[in-house]
Amino acid sequence: MVLPHLSIAVSIPNMPGGTSWLADIRVRTTRNFLGHEILFLALLAVLLCSGCAKPPVAKLMETTAYCGCSSCCSWERGSWAMLKLDFWNRYVSSGPNAGRSYSGLTASGTVPYEPEEGLFSMDSIYRPWMIPVRLILFPWYLLPHDGTIAADTKYYPFGTRMYVPGYGQGVVEDRGGAIKGPNRIDLYFDSHSDALTWGRKKVRVTIEHPR
Predict the structure, then answer these.
(1) What's this model's pTM, rounded to 2 decimal places?
(2) What is the dihedral of CA 106, 112, 114, 117, to 10 degrees?
(3) CATH of segment(s) 57-68+106-208
(4) What is the C-alpha to C-alpha distance for residues 51 and 198, in angstroms, rounded to an integer?
């Protein structure tokens, strides 16, 4: 893009330094055009980025729940090769990876979390007893973070954000052997009892596809 240049000749009779005044006007004019072009390019970039983003989609989905326990994630303590004496180690108990070490991480390599709304949220109003818990016992609960969702990554790649009513904001970070198709997701909970309480529900999920 060629920068427009505008020259304004000013005749200043009998005044020393008239040439420097003319140069100053030229510099200021060029700077004004340059600032306008930078602003125009910034607005154009914002419009292009917003145009590429897919709008959120709401659809009815079947949701289930899981936690990090041995029952939900198919792992066991100790290896039969060690006669179960290494009970502090965890191993995959079923599937194609049976016998391998179990790390507890998601399929995308992240630590699974249940959604947390943080200190400055409506949750602190509805549950004020959580304020000292967040401030003193668990300071990492001060900031909000998304929960972990397992989905079929053929339809929802890692990083897809979803809002599930009754659960909160989550992001696809995991897969599941039984989680197949575009209408099935699995929600992570910190405890097995909470996962059982959720059970199996059909809810309308708002999906935000990654850009």
Answers:
(1) 0.66
(2) -120
(3) 2.40.40.10
(4) 37
